[in-house]
């Protein structure tokens, strides 16, 4: 596939194209600072289909939009700013994932899942995550460097964690990672995208059917059990929920693991600081989440009534991208936003997990995984370094979730 | 300081319980529970942090 699809309508839009690219992996696209300053609620044209959308770039406005019940997440609504190729016909057949539902359907499903991700439950999962991380690092040390940290650690840790939580046999993980990566790729054709969704759903359909008759100690089985009384989801909803958890649970965290390690390797003073004072770890994780804000445009919405944002009227039926990478580099909230600062008091105010009723459910789990991976790596492989010049690394500029494709490291 | 919460709005992010564990907790359903409706002034800063970080704007502080 080519990178720059011609607008489908043929007429060139007068507005800047979206997505805009990061020129430095540790920052935001260069255009964002100017938008925040001069035109914080602005128009853009989507590269994928030439359709127009609003871009919202200031922290307070992103929070306002994502917290507004007059704004919908429903990707079937006309005007929703799609960021990948999807035909009208396919759209008509799509079963909405929870993240694309509005209340009250969203509320009913989310409520059944909330107990799985409480602060307490996540804490209880830590010892198992630590085991998983230690096993992977044992394997890295046994193999010897150089290794690709993405394949050796960044992908398997969240993949194993989410597979165990959902009750998916880990033996099938290679297949999952392939489908999952496909679903995050901007440049797939509708046919390729549809095929990936279908293959994953067929697998999950069998798995859910199995758990309906032979429940296990896992999230899918508990969801099915609750649903017997709640009746909030049918079989296909459960399959779709499982897909959302699986895809959302590993691609995102995997990218943050690899980018976070890269940030530490490229900032040796920060790494030394973190190694000498582990109490900095939770805030360091927040700061890394902020700086990268990897799911920048994951917060796509469409207005269902006219709303006013920063003095601009967004009309009912118009699409909105509330850009969290832009919000997380807002200099009125984060002084000197381009600087990585593990002592930054307001780091946790970032919107990397979104905001509002759709804020990432797995945020606490992701935080736990990141803390454990970074700290264990620092402790167990103190001599960790890049095995190639940083300039040679390739970044996921065209994916829905930002990341680095490979991270060759040695020690 | 008087702390109230809107149980129906809560989306169970657990941010409040992590920011201010003496004032907030999550019940078996994962939804917000207020442990102290009138916490002392020494907890003011962390309670305000919880308000700011709550993604569903379910926490209200008066007085």
TrEMBL record, chain B:
Its cofactor is [3Fe-4S] cluster. It holds the Pfam family Fer4_13. The keyword Iron applies. Keywords: 3Fe-4S, Electron transport, Iron, Iron-sulfur, Metal-binding, Transport. It comes from the Bacteria. Residues 1-29 form the 4Fe-4S ferredoxin-type domain. PROSITE patterns: 4FE4S_FER_2. The keyword Cell membrane does not apply. Ferredoxins are iron-sulfur proteins that transfer electrons in a wide variety of metabolic reactions. This is Ferredoxin. It comes from Streptomyces glycanivorans.
